[in-house]
Fold these 3 entries.
Entry 1:
Amino acid sequence: MARKALGPRLTPSKAKNLLGVAKVVGPVLIPVLAPFAAKAAGLVSDQYDQYRARRLGVGIEDLTKYTGKGARLHARIAGFAQALDELRAKDADYVAETESRLVKLAAAVRASERMPTPRRKAAHRAVSADLDVLENDLLRRLGVS
C-alpha cells in the first residue's frame, strides 16, 4: 500500500511504451508545432530588441549602431552630438570645442572595450561623468535649467 501512495512508477516496460508513442506522435507534432515555435521565438526577439532600444534611448532601426559594453555611452554621445546642431548657429566656437571633446570621449569608450573589467568600468564612469558636465552646460546654453 505504501507504494501506491507514492504514485505510479516508471517501469522499463512503461518507458519502452512511452518511447514508442513518442516515435509515432513526434513526427506528426513537430511539423505542426514548428511554425508556432518559430513565431514565438521571433516575438521574443522583437521584444528584446525593443527593450534594448529603450534602454539605450535610440530607435530600433539604430540599435545595430550601438553594440558592446560601451553601447549606452556611444548612444549618449551620438544624441549629444545631434543636440549640438541646434546650437551651431548661435555659438559655433562652443560647438566646435564640444564636438572635439565628444570625438575624444568616443575614442575613449572604444579603447575601453578591450580593457579588463575594472579598468573598463572606471573608464566608462569617467566618460559618463564628463558627459554629465557637458550635458548640463548644453542645457544651460539652450536655456533649460
Entry 2:
Amino acid sequence: MKLVLLTEPDLEFADGGRHLDPRFGVLRFGPLDASAASQPRLIEVGIIGTKETIEKLSDWLEGCRNPIPGKETHLRNLFPDFPGFAGDTMFQAELVLDERLNRPIGARDLRACVRGAADTTRRNITDLLINELSVLVENERPDVVVVALPQEIVERVERAAPDETLAKDKPERTRPQPLNFHDLLKARGMRYRVPIQMVNPMTYDPTVKRRQKGRKHQARQLQDETTRAWNLHVALYYKSGGYPWRLPRADSDLAVCFLGVSFFRTGRRESLWTSVAQVFNQRGVGMIIRGGPAYQSKLDKQAHLSGADAEKLVKSAMDRYKAEHGHLPARLVVHKSSMYTADEIAGFRAGIDDLGIGSSDLLSLRRAYTKLFRPGSYPPQRGTLWTLERERHILYTRGSVPFFETYPGLYVPRPIEFRVHEPEETPAWLASELLSLTKMNWNTTEFAQRDPITLRAADQVSDILRYLGENDPIESSYASYM
C-alpha cells in the first residue's frame, strides 16, 4: 500500500490567470472568454412562471447586477463576494430582462394540473410548460429559458432522490420508477433547442420556507445569497454560450479527450442502452452521443457492452470529436461507471488502435467502501490518494482543504475507487486528472464536487435520455442537460 497527497489543481481564467477556486478566479481575472469575440455580452433570459414568481425573480436578478458581500465568517475564503453581473464587472456580461421574453401562467391553471397521482401531476405540468415554451421560442427565442414555479407546485412535482452518480454501476431495478419532473421537462423541451434552467423559489425569495424531507416541521437551511447568486449566474453564462474556466494545459501536454460512459434503461424499461457524455478539450465542452445496446451481466449484475459495441462507441465518439476540432485527440481517457470485461477492453483498444490514437487509459469508477481516518476533527485532505494494488486506488475528491482552513462539507466524505486497465499514465497523474474534472461542473461554483464531470454528465444525460425514444433527436450540447 502507498499513501500520497496530491497537489490541488488550478483552473485557468481570462488572459491565462490561474486559481484553484472558481469564484476567486473569476473575481481576479474574469471568465475564460472575457476578451473573446464570442463572449456572450447580452444574455436574453426568458422566464416562464406565474406573474408573482416572474416579478420576484426579475427583481432579484436586477439586484444581482450589483455586488453582494460574502457571508460574514472567520473562514473568509469560503464565501467570497459576488462581483455583480453587469457589463462593467469582472463578468463583462449582463442579463436582458424584458416582459416580451416572459410567459406568465395563471396560478389557477397550475393548480388545475394537480391530481391525486403524482406522476399525472408531473405530466400535466410538463405539458403546460412545454406549450408555453413553444410559444416563447416561436415568438422571441431567448438565449436561456428559466422556469420559476411557485413553491406549492414545486412540492407537488419533486421527489426524493439522492445524488448517487457513481453508485449507479448497476442497472436500475426493473420495477417502474416515479417520473423525475426535471428530467422529463428537459427531455420534452429538447426539440426547441434552447437551454432550460429551473430555479427553486428559495433562490430568489427568502420568505419561502421549504420543509426538510423526513422532518416536516423543520425548514431547510437556505444557502447564503452570495452563493445563490454565484451559482445561478455562472450557469446562465455557460448555457448562453460562455466559458467561465477550463483546465490548464501546458504546451508540452497532449491534446486529451475525456469520455464518460454510463448506462440507462428506456422509458418502458424494456432494454438497456448506453449514454456517453463527451467532455473534450480543456474548455470542458460537453458533446453528447447516444450509444448502442448494452446488457446486464449475470455474473456481476452490472451493465456492459459487447466488444463490437465498445469499438463502435469509441469510433462514434471520435467522429464527433473530429467534426468539432478538425483532428483526433492525441490521448483518450475513458471513464466508465461499471467494471470492464475482457471483451470491452478488447473492443475499446481495437477502436483506439484503429483510429491511430497514440495514448489511452481505461478507468472504472465507483463509490469506495474503504475509508481513512485522520486524527483530529477534520476528515482526510482532498487529494489523498491511497494505492491498494497496482490497478486499484482510493481517491478523496472531497475532504479538508487548506485554502479554506476547514472541510467545506456537511457529511463525512466518501472517497471514490478507480481501477485502471493496462495504464499508460501513473496513478498519481490519473488521480490528478480526476481531481481537476471535479471542478468542471458549471451548474455550480462549488469548489469541487464528489464526482468527475465525465461520469456526472454521463449520468445526467442518461437520466434525461430515458424519456426519449430511440429515434427521437437529441441535443449534442451538454448545456441542454445540466
Entry 3:
Amino acid sequence: MKRSEKALKYYAEGYNCAQSVVVAFTDVLNLSEETTLKLAAGFGGGMGRLQQTCGVITGAFMVIGYLKGNYQQDGESEQSRKITNQLIQDFSRIFTQKHGSINCKSLINFDINSEEDLKKAKEADVFNKKCTYFIKTAVELLEDTLAKDLPPQK
C-alpha cells in the first residue's frame, strides 16, 4: 500500500490529519503505529484545533525531525539542525506554493471552533474534499523531500 493510501485510510477511520501523515511513515521511523498515533494526537486541526499550522504540516515536520534531527549536543548537532531546518523550510515553501498557506484556518476557510462554521464546513464536505487532498499531497511531498532516506515502495 502506498503511503498516501495508508494516510487516507487512517484519516477515513477518524484519525486526525497529523496522525494520518505520521503513521504513513512508521516503516522508516521504526516506531509502532500506536506510538506514532499517540505522538501526533494533539496536532490535528492546526495543533489542538487552534487552527494554526495545519496538522499535515506538523505531521511532516515530526517525520523530518525524527529522521534528520539531532538528539545529542555534539559536533554534528549544528549540521543536523541546519539540514532539518532547511528540509522543513523547503517543505513549507513548496506546500504553500501548491496550496497558498500552511495555516489550517486559511486552508479550509472555516473556523472549526465556531459551531456555526463547523456545521458549514461539514455541509461543504471540507474535511473530505480539502483535508484529504492536503494529506495526500503532504505525504507525497514528504516522500519527495526525503527520497534518498526512504526505501522503495512495495
